[in-house]
Amino acid sequence: MTTLALDGVRVLDMTHVQSGPSATQLLAWLGADVVKVEAPGGDVTRGQLRDVPGADSLYFTMLNCNKRSITLNLKTERGREILTALIRGADVLVENFGPGAVDRMGFTWERIREINPRMVYASIKGFGEGPYTAFKAYEVVAQAMGGSMATTGFENGPPMATGAQIGDSGTGVHAVAGILAALFQRERTGKGQRVNVAMQHAVLNLCRVKLRDQQRLAHGPLPEYPNEDFGDEVPRSGNASGGGQPGWAVRCAPGGPNDYVYVIVQPVGWAPLAALIGRPELAEDPEWATPQARLPKLAKMFQLIEEWTATLPKWQVLEQLNRHNIPCGPILSTKEIIEDRSLADNDMIVEVEHPERGAFTTVGNPLKLSDSPTTITTPPLLGQHNEEIYIGELGLGDEELKLLKSGGVI
Questions:
Q1: Left, alpha or beta for 244 (phi > 0: left; psi -120 to 50: alpha)?
Q2: Listing from the earlier edge strand, what are the strands of the sheet with 260-264?
Q3: Which positions are annotated as active-site residues?
Q4: Staple 146 to which of 23, 169, 186, 204, CB 3.0 to 4.6 Å?
Q5: Which residues are 194's β-sheet partners?
Q6: Which residues are within 8 A (CB) of 390 and not within 5 positions of it... i.e. 6 or more apart?
């Protein structure tokens, strides 16, 4: 029988919505026993954006695979006693309530550490300590305050959100890194510790190249950007890569919303690219032959490339560019991604059976460990494992379980 990387690690998942559940799902995929502790009404996302009447929504199912679910009312004294017993037998507790909410339940870090000195207690919040602490954090709020929106979009246009959930799921990945580091350190010290991750901080970490460019602005305009004017802030620059190798999304035939290929022009790729677009003379023209010569006219360069790509479907453009080892990638729509055979073959697009809604498609585990293979299993129904955990693992009796239910504790 295969032993998974986190076999034997028990995680109490006191999270909801996306940032926390995305983290605990990754831990579950790595082999941890993740017990989702839900209020009797359940995670709010079970009913949000529901597409199948009476069944858990895709919002919930795609963030809670491979977990077990118990219900527990922490507003009751008995509920808090049961949570204490759960903490005693766990390795990790993850929560993403509002600031101070868990403390007000009576479970401060000092109390948790007293119950279980080996506990790794991870909190995901919107912001760190300071003037923003009490702000309510949502995905796009984190993008706005972490540097992403100010640098996303086109010149002279409004700030834009990215479709990638860098505020929520991006923070979840950061939380997993902190939790794994704390577990590793515990192997040496025997002690647990606090792990704090803020959504604003995670987005900022993902925007570090824009902070790089903010400092470079002190020495003059940024030639890798297609913008004509530079103030004292990094501008929005459309689809420019902003890196050492210029790139842009160029339109392809027949001109639909995702008929584009992203092309990067490396020095070594200019000659074959010039030949492909029907302008081989540009490879020797001193006005075009070197990266330094091309930098001041990036817009014109990509216009010339697009005049060629606009005559061909994106997959033909892709084939010809790859034949000459020119870095490129098609803009894949969500429909194309969900139907992509290679992603399915790599277990990144996975079909999962669900007892109420039938089969649904979800994203697989991007962390591929050779000795810890992931099998995606169905997310739990609300309270599905109450009996298994409360009776089978905590040793409560059948009658007490009935009383807990009738008394609103579970």
A1: alpha
A2: 247-251, 260-264, 328-330
A3: 168
A4: 204
A5: 121
A6: 70, 82, 396, 401, 404, 410
Instruction: Count the neighbouring beta carbons within 10 Å of the beta carbon of residue 53.
Output: 6
Task: Give Cβ neighbours of residue 340 (< 8 Å, ≥ 6 apart).
Answer: 332, 349
Instruction: Please give the structure tokens belonging to residue 251.
Output: 């339109």
pLDDT of residue 396: 95
Cα 307 to Cα 305: distance, rounded to the nearest angstrom: 5
Nearest 5°: CA angle at 25, between 149 and 56? 90
Looking at residue 30, its amino acid is: L
Give the per-residue pLDDT at 241. Answer: 84
Q: What is the pLDDT of residue 315?
A: 98
Given a cut of 70, the residues of the chain with pLDDT beneath it are: 1
What is the C-alpha separation between 119 and 94, in angstroms, rounded?
10
Rounded mean pLDDT of the chain? Answer: 96
Q: Kindly report the pTM of this predicted structure.
A: 0.95
Is the four-CA dihedral 313, 318, 321, 327 of positive or negative sign? positive
User: What pairing do the DSSP bridges indicate for beta strands 260-264 and 33-38?
Assistant: unpaired
Is 46:56 a contact under the CB 8 Å cutoff? Answer: yes
